[in-house]
Amino acid sequence: MEIAKDWQSIYTGIAIICNRITPAHRDRKGKPEWFDLLLNYAGSDSAPELSVNDLGLSLQYCNGTVVGFCGNIFEHEVKSWGNGDRICYAHFMREAVRKRMEAKDPGWVEQKNYVS
Q1: What is the bridge-based pairing of β-strands 22-25 and 76-78?
Q2: What are the residue ranges spanned by the domains of the chain?
Q3: Any idea what DSSP says for residue 11?
Q4: Which of 40, 14, 23, 36 is nearest to 80 (CA)?
Q5: 22-25 and 36-42: which strand pairing?
Q6: What fold, for 4-103?
Q7: 90, 48 in Cβ contact below 8 A?
Q8: By the 8 A CB rule, do 33 and 70 touch?
Q9: pLDDT in tens, the chain (116 residues)
């Protein structure tokens, strides 16, 4: 638990996904009000697409793209990454970790928190 107190991110986990598809899924271990953050690094031959199926979106997922969305609510997938190499850093939060660390529940993101 001492190491967890030095963690420098609001996210409780980071998954590294290399050169693979991600089947359609929802991230059920978080909460609906929490956003996942996906950061994509791709070679020049790579042309991955992030599909957010519940919204009917298919996003070009070029090198350096960062996408934030609620992975708990919206089903998402990467069907293909094209040719070349691809690395995705998927940042996410887990309710069980928040509870274990006795951290305050941040609740919903609200505009009033960012506008003065």
Answers
A1: antiparallel
A2: 4-103
A3: -
A4: 23
A5: unpaired
A6: Double-stranded beta-helix (3.60.130)
A7: no
A8: yes
A9: 676 667 677 788 899 999 888 999 999 998 888 889 999 988 777 778 899 999 999 988 888 889 999 999 999 999 887 788 889 999 998 999 888 888 888 788 778 877 76
